[in-house]
Amino acid sequence: MEQMAGFARIAAEGAAAHGPEEALYAITRALPALLGDPSAALRPNAFRESPPPTIGAAAVAFMVTADRQHHMITAPVNFAPEQYHELVDIRLGHPGEVAKTRQPMLLRDTALHSSFVKILQSFRAGSSMFAPILWQDEYLGVLICANAARNTFGEADLIAHRGFAALAASLWVAQGGPAWMAAQDLSKLPRRSVGT
């Protein structure tokens, strides 16, 4: 019930927003508190880093650029400030896999996935979820939620996350996201083609 109440509040905030990125922030600001098992951080060996990071959760929309060569880091929560509007190669890491397959992904423990690369610079994610943002079968981007603790997210979280990705698509289009993206001067933005 809490997730449904949260969904309703977030949808209303996004609809009242003034612009596409502000609308996406309504989602990304709320996701870390709404999804996942908070007790995961209390389990032995919960974190991939020692000592545990001071920032434990993050959310973001990786929105595809007009040239379809990059994901732009959009509406980031708990990302390093220098990553704001960073352009990430559209093929990089699990966001790149979602761009290719248009399928959601749940990584309960990122250490078990040899293909996992660190794009988020605030902490090394122990658990993460990815859901494609689709509008009338057009790929717009990927909604990501990450937590420093392993096994934070499960199947029920991924189902809710997919619902938030569908909401993100609706808000992005309704708020003029594609035109906003087309107007961005990509030549001035930082770029990332590899993870760590």
From TrEMBL:
| Superkingdom per UniProt | Bacteria
Gene3D superfamilies reported in the protein's UniProt record:
3.30.450.40
According to the entry, every stretch annotated as the GAF domain falls at 20-169
Output the InterPro entries linked to this UniProt entry.
Answer: GAF (IPR003018), GAF-like_dom_sf (IPR029016)
This one is known as GAF domain-containing protein
Q: Which organism is this entry from? A: Sediminicoccus rosea
